[in-house]
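Before relying on records like the one below, remember that each one covers exactly one chain. Contacts with other chains, cofactors or solvent are not represented anywhere in the record.
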Amino acid sequence: MMKKIITWLLSLWIAFVFIQSLLFKFTDSPETQHIFGTIGAWMSTNFLAPLSEFFTAYGGYTIGSFELIASVLLIIPGTTRSLGALLAIGLMTGAIFFHLFTPLGVNVQGDGGVLFYMACSVWLSGWIVFYLQQSTSKRRSYF
């Protein structure tokens, strides 16, 4: 029972973080333009250059769409929750990488690292949800 409650709470946390950011990503807010523009400019200086223009222009919409998909998968009980957790882990691995290894940095526009730490909390929550889902589903018998 406790695993179920923890799984639900962490799934709801991930979905909350993703869904509340959609307004920024889907409206091409100045914050979104700064984040994806900074990353796109960095991409243009290395082997990712072919993706830089697309990422600058459409990165917010693309990432936001995948975050919405992950949120829906996490809210649906059952096997889709593991897929949502894996998608959240993948998305936040990218976010953490870009915060740490590009000019974006941890402190984005003076936010004190809030975006970075939220990405870390979602990443960790995703791993916990995935682990709990896997340990629960191994005990189920569908036959």
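The helical segments are 2-26, 30-43, 49-75, 80-101, 114-137.
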